[in-house]
Amino acid sequence: MKEFIYSRNAVYETLRAKRRDVFRLEVAQGVQEKGRMLDILQMARERKIPVLSAPRAGMDKIHPAHQGVLLEASGYPYANLTDILDLAARRGEPPFVLLLDTLNDPQNFGTLLRTAEAVGVHGVVLPLARTVEVTPAVVNASSGASEHLLIAQANLSQAIDELREADVWTVGLDEGPDSRGPSEVRLDGGLAVVVGSEGEGIRPLVKSKCDFLLRLPMQGKIESLNASVAGSVALYLAYLARKK
Question: Which of 66, 118, 127, 213 sits in a 20 to 30 Å window from 206, CA-based?
Answer without folding.
Answer: 118
